[in-house]
Every structure is written in C-alpha cells, then in structure tokens.
Amino acid sequence: MLPMEQDNGDLDSLVRKRIRALRVAQGWSLDELATRANLSQSSLSRIENGQRRLALDQLVTLARALDTTLDQLVETASDDVVTSPVIDGAHGLMRWPIKGEPGMSVVRQRMTEPPPDNPARMRAHPGREWLVVLSGTAILMLGHRRFRVETNQAAEFPTMLPHAIGAEGGPCEILGIFDRDARRGHQRDTEG
Q1: pTM for this model (two decimals)
Q2: What is the overall mean pLDDT for the chain?
C-alpha cells in the first residue's frame, strides 16, 4: 500500500470530501458504500473524517464503488477554467479540446447544404459522436436511415456506420462532441 503524501494536506482533504460528497449524492449510507467497497463501516468513516491514512489500493476500490475513476477522485482544481476555441475558417469550424478526456473535442459548425443522398459520399471511421442542434434543423444520415434532428435535440451514434450531416430548410448550427477516433476520422476528411 502506498499512503498519500502527508505534506499534501489540501489534496488529502479534497479527496476525503469528494468521497463523502459522492457517497451522499448516491444516497448511500456509510454502511452501503463500505459494503460496496469491501471495507468496514468504521474504516470508511475514519477515511472520510481524516482519522485514517488514504492508501492507494483503498482509493482505487472506493473510486470503482463510487462509479468514478482514480484520476477524477484525486484531480486538483485547475486555474485555466475558460478556454478559447481554435478557429478553422476554411471549414467553418470552431474546436474546443476537452481537458478531462484527452483526445476528445467539441466542434461548432454552421451548415447550409443538405447531406449527400449518395451513401458512397458518406464517411465511416472508428469512434463515437454526439451532437446537439443549436439552431435550425439538421438531417443525420446513418447508412440508409434518415433522421431529422431539430433545435435542442441531440443524437449519438457510432461512427463505424456510414454517416453524413447536413441542413434542412435553411442553415443550421450544431455542436458536436467527438471521441479521439471520431475526431481523427474527421480530421482526415477535412485534410483530404
């Protein structure tokens, strides 16, 4: 077992508060989380109250029991909360990287053209995408299926299906979230 550094009291205190806050948010008693984490109720109570040292193996077990990751449990606050987009004027895109999930990005795009009718013009690549329509109406083509996505509606899909997105009845604006693989697939499309 590797105890957390005692000279880092702020992080130690923060992790203990997170454990308790996550437990309370789930509506769990000390006993319920202790059972899920295979700890005694008194051990968990001492961990939350700072009367017992935090051990790495216990943190991993508690993170799993709380349905989070060790990284999220010990993550420290960041001063760079606000970020500016990277603007790709040639393709009409704004991109924001997501710090908590390396490789993920958020893209805002204005579309004026309908999606292609020809499935051969649709792209498929590894990954997963999520999008929300900010204004207008978008058409999402997934293989031979056609989905109408209106303002404030969202869609999520695996990008291994041939897909394309376009506007219907005038311009639309979408906000998309791409995992690392989906982002790479779209970067190859715009570079080519």
Answers
A1: 0.52
A2: 80
